[in-house]
Amino acid sequence: MINAKILDLNRNGSAIRAMFEEGKRMAAQYGAENVYDYSLGNPSVEPPKEIREAFYHILEEESQNLVHGYMLNAGYEDVREAVAKKLNASFGTAFSARNILMTVGAAGGLNVAFKTLLNPGDEVITFAPFFGEYRNYVSNFDAELVVVPTTPETFQPDLAALAAAITPKTKAMLINNPNNPTGVVYPEAVIRDIAALLCQKEREFGTSIYLIADEPYRELVYDGVQVPYLTKYYHNTIVGYSYSKSLSLPGERIGYLVLPDSLDEADEIIAGAAVANRILGFVNAPSLIQRVVGRCQDVTVDVEIYNRNRELLYGKLTEYGYSCVKPQGAFYLFVKAPGGDDRAFVEAAKKHRILLVAGSGFGGPGYVRLAYCVDHDMILRSLPGFAALAKEYGLQ
Amino acid sequence: MINAKILDLNRNGSAIRAMFEEGKRMAAQYGAENVYDYSLGNPSVEPPKEIREAFYHILEEESQNLVHGYMLNAGYEDVREAVAKKLNASFGTAFSARNILMTVGAAGGLNVAFKTLLNPGDEVITFAPFFGEYRNYVSNFDAELVVVPTTPETFQPDLAALAAAITPKTKAMLINNPNNPTGVVYPEAVIRDIAALLCQKEREFGTSIYLIADEPYRELVYDGVQVPYLTKYYHNTIVGYSYSKSLSLPGERIGYLVLPDSLDEADEIIAGAAVANRILGFVNAPSLIQRVVGRCQDVTVDVEIYNRNRELLYGKLTEYGYSCVKPQGAFYLFVKAPGGDDRAFVEAAKKHRILLVAGSGFGGPGYVRLAYCVDHDMILRSLPGFAALAKEYGLQ
Questions:
Q1: pLDDT bucket at B44, cuts 50 / 70 / 90
Q2: Nearest by CB: B249 against A68, A111, A283
């Protein structure tokens, strides 16, 4: 008998990944240009040209044993220094290399943070809808994910519901801003309210409640919106970051954790996270790509490409009668499923060779997620299918 | 209160890593050329030239979204196919891409295997001395590492001791061949005996006992010795491999698991390992380096460089009166600590600016480990220190 949780996940696997694999099958059957795959957050925009230049520079100029060798488990000191410097310049913080731990993407970083913080039976709070993998990351360490609803339609946090969910067993709260799957950005006023509430509950219960900010979409924002940097609002904040989206490098598995000196037990957490990074089997974030992102701190992909997709898809879908909050960040639309049954709508869309992911997997039943980090032309080609679906469901 | 195991590890951290960091401090103080750091298995030999050529080829010829994007959690299909083909050509096996899961090094692979197989309370057997991280990898999944002694002096498996250690709770046995820290290779006859014993115990207890072969040192062998490929001897074998040593790429975190169709519950294990790779936060092995090793299946570092180091160091140390089995693989010497107290000898060696690791951390008290994957000149410079230490301890 293999691991019981893994057996269970084999039977109820990731809806996103299942759709990704189905997309590959359908592309083989119908031709890639006739399948409209909105299932996976796999950026279609190429990495900025500076990435390529950095690869060449490092391969030509730096020692191979440095570039491909072991370094401290936390990462190269010069890379961590470059990350800290960029954060300080952007947000007025005062981090040093000591506060930065290079990780195998944000997924690796969240697992390192949870391994470091959580004891069995601890509770971790997050808002619905949420990235479904959070449930597995928390379960990895035998803690419990407590899901708090957001306000219907806007998907903004419901502070009263949050207050009711915090208990003496709450070890952490996980915030994803901009949010996957809704594209919503929590504004500064909401962040201030959450911070005040967490401080109050820490005092009330005599506990430490760590706010973990999962921020792979930080740079992907539209309409000039600002994403608050959470370490400035709350002392017990840990930031998890990934370059997967901002530099179109999701396969490379590169990101970092910010572990501020203001954390309760900061020394233990900083040392412990490096240990967790080691013993979970990451050992260190991949070396060459660490050095590449270290040189590309001022670079991001052209967000306007995603914005064009957002405007087109949001405009057309609402024109067809679909209902959806206009996202201010990330590259997802979270659309109300016509008919109310998200899984049924996903099946109906497949008949038009449109691949969506059911909201149920995100704690958002009745909705479907579209990842619009795709070719603009694919969106154009998919529109007749969406229009036909709208008619089938009587939206117009 | 952060995680209790992490707190404990903060206080009793990795002896190897502590020495690595001490080595950096001493290098700053005395000059790098005056510190003789034998602590870490960080290859000094550069990657083969084909690695560099593969990087350039891929960066120039392949689509950036392919090279840096998401792929199946198990890895690129063409890379897994290339790995399977090479294994089949080398060992007469019959693997396909389905049997290969690309991992974040061998450390990532072992954690994926354990996550997939182990339920809390399961037992995992390994032979002493062993790579100390095994204890943490098994503990990550709330299973118990059962350490079985080897024959004194030769470090070869003691089959009677192994037979006595296997219980109905034995879920896996972990073998590291060639062995870190001893450099010993277990020959075919021993492997046959182990396989026969495991089969007998599986029948006796009605259980599945998975043999996990940790093989990052497979290609680093000397004197024409052969390392048996364990899937050929035992049906329930999983192989964990890393390119860290064979291609001098330890920082890149790239390796694979072999999951044969002959495994009990093969389908569940193959599917489950991909899930484990995803939810532990690896998601997938880093993408560009996957494609690089996929193109370099016939390449290894020049083992003769390590052999020269082995001959020099083994020859001189035994000449000075130290006692040590002559290693046939890997790049470690496991030397009897003069005076019998390994930690005291490590401290004494530090006074000669020689950095060693105490055998206690490997379940081999009374010995010290030397990693000779270092510059040949560093070995030469360190010899007067070893000679002086030998005199201090009255070895001559």
A1: confident
A2: A68
